[in-house]
# Entry
Amino acid sequence: MSKAFVIAETENGARELCAGARKLADEVVLVSVGAPVSGAADKSFHIDVPAGNIADDAYVTVNKIYDAEGGDVVLGEQTLRALSLVGRLAAKLGAAAITGVSAVEGGVATSMYFGGTGVREAKAAGDVAVYTFGPGVFDASEATGTDAVEEAAFEAPENAVAKTGSEALPPSDVNLAGADAIVACGRGFGAEEDLQLARDLAAKLGAELACSRPLAEGVDWFPREAYVGVSGAVVSPKVYVAVGISGQMQHMVGCNGADVIVAVNKDKNAPVFKACDYGFVGDLKTVLPALTAAL
Amino acid sequence: MNILVACKIVPDDQDVKVAGDGSLDFSRAHKVVSTYDLNAIEAAAQIAAANDGSTVKAISVGPKKADDSKTKKNILARGVDELFLAADDALDGLDAFATAAELAKLAAKAGDWDVIVTGDGSADLYAKQTGVQLAAKLGVPFVSGVVSAEAADGKLVAKRLLESEEETVEVPLPAVVSVAPEFAEPRIAGMKDILAAGKKPMNVEGAEGAPAKAVEEVSVKAPAEVDRKKEMFDDVDAFAAAVKAAL
Ligand SMILES: Cc1cc2nc3c(=O)[nH]c(=O)nc-3n(C[C@H](O)[C@H](O)[C@H](O)COP(=O)(O)OP(=O)(O)OC[C@H]3O[C@@H](n4cnc5c(N)ncnc54)[C@H](O)[C@@H]3O)c2cc1C
# Structure
């Protein structure tokens, strides 16, 4: 009988991965370092991480549970903490996680290469395959299992990291998932006040505002939830207007699901023009007001 | 503080060509430092600058082509004092387990260290696994997503940006920390820095043998093309009409 070993932090992640694990193995064991999760696996463990410790350091306990339970395939959630736990277990097994997996077929996992520039197929060389999945690959509602959750005591490693504080991030009001239209801003916006031009266009289109990754983390003109791409939001509006965005694959894989892609860029050779439906070459400072007025 | 920074030298994906059979051809691609590893180098340089008498040494593992004069200087022009590079085709395309083992060997050669800084994830696989695998190999603590760090007597006081919270931690040293791009924007290296970089010590070596693979690559192909109209406009009214019709 084959067994899957799931490492999760969030409840939704646990359910999604357990649903996926069922497709890959006969028996599913779950270890959660967030909330206890029932009804998702055949055996469910919960590690209560003390307030002064970090969940990443739960690896001592996770690895012990693995030693006791075993598993032919490990499925990890792609949160930073779960990725730490996956990495520690993989290291112990002499394995390496294949991450960002979108499908597993006959032991071959598919994931992106260079952020969507390529599609890569890879498989584990050793006895245990270790995969991690982003949200949405599996359907959380399909998870089934026991209601019993076993508590496993947190065991601190030597030289444990001390957690001295934590602050919840402010909830974001970005709502790209259900948007019919999105206006996305890139580094072509030289100054923060120029974003008003995009806001005006968005207001006219009834669109949500989004951005490329550099505008959410190099400068923090946008919250993290607003950036579209391989490591950010994946969106599928009717219309996606990319303004001052060069069109690198890492960004475009996030908006390829749009019915229509519109691009405004001052460089006629920008790659975005090879990936759009309607393009306009020009300076966004003149094109956006004119477009907004003409709509 | 003695700081090591691990960085990956990768082909520039802008130069990648799609071959006739749909496979990707990287053979003509320039070598560059992986995007977010530049932020890691900057983070290491900033931690060093904040702590008198610090050193920063870069460690990197890659194929023979990683031994590229311009790329090596680019690393050393960013506040890095010395480079330890293992460049050998036997070390091409290593998975995180094997990379960690090779980086650990370089770390041993680089002398005493307090902290090893890694980037958010490499441009090719973006697996975010090398840092934690390296920590496991070395038997030291690991934290990821670090956006700021200050040294305080045998510890690093750091802030981590996680999915829904910001966590403050004290990391006992030695440790491996992986930094988020938000930690620091990479500097623009000036001509003087690049000239000076050419005079800094570069220790380049081959592989002692081909490491065992934990992951086997089956194929890498170009993605399926999404069909787009690619219609260009020079009249704003016509452009506006097209956009409107799509809504
Ligand atoms: C592992 C990894 C993951 C990544 N994940 C993501 C991701 O999820 N999402 C993402 O967006 N990026 C991601 N990136 C970054 C990505 O590779 C690109 O660097 C980024 O998308 C570029 O953003 P940009 O198009 O806004 O900026 P640039 O590439 O700098 O493009 C700016 C564009 O603006 C144009 N422009 C300049 N001035 C004007 C003007 N006045 N009017 C009109 N046009 C103008 C320029 O011609 C240029 O085309 C990732 C990178 C890596 C390595």
Observations:
- Helices of chain A lie at 11-24, 59-69, 80-93, 195-205, 214-217, 249-252, 284-294.
- Residues A 115, 186-188, 212-214, 227-232, 244-246, 248, 250-251, 254, 265-267, 270, 283-285; B 35-36, 121, 123, 126 surround flavin-adenine dinucleotide (CB under 6 Å).
- DSSP finds seven helices and 15 strands in chain A.
